[in-house]
Amino acid sequence: MPKQFQLCEQPLIGFIATSNPARAKKFYGETLGLPLVSEDSSFALVFNAHGTMLFVSIVEKVSVAGYTVLGWQVPDITEAVKGLQEAGVQFHHYQGMPQDEFGIWMSPSGAKVAWFKDADGNTLSLSEHDESPRTPDQETTVAMPGSSIQ
Questions:
Q1: Per-domain residue ranges for the chain?
Q2: Whole-structure pTM value
Q3: CATH of the domain spanning 64-145, picked from 3.10.20.30, 3.30.720.110, 3.20.20.70, 2.40.50.40
C-alpha cells in the first residue's frame, strides 16, 4: 500500500517581499550572510537559509505586516544579536515590553526573542528556545507584540 503524501515530510520554502531587489540582496546576502542561490531581476531573489529556500519576491509595493513574518532559531541569542549589530542590524525595543539592553524579551515559556526589520520594513526575529526535545505534536506558542496571547 503506497504511503499517503504528507507535507510534514517536505521541505518548507519561505517567502518575503521587497520593492527594491538591490537593497534586499545587500541586506539578506551581505548583512545577514545568506548565500544567494539565484536571481531573476523581474521575479525574485532566492537565498539559502540553512537548507531552507527563501524567496524574496519582487513586488511594486511591499505591504508590511504588523507582526513577525520570518525568524531564525539560534543557540545563543545574545551572541547572535551582537553579531548582527556589528553587521549594522538594529534591534527593536517595544514600548511596555520588558526587554534587555539588546532588545531581547523573555516569553512566559522561557523562550528569548528579539526583533529587527529588513530593508523593506518586514519584521524578522531571532529566538532561543530551551534544548528539551519536542515531538511533532507539541506546539510552542510565543506571544508577539500586539497579540492577545498571554
A1: 12-61, 64-145
A2: 0.82
A3: 3.30.720.110
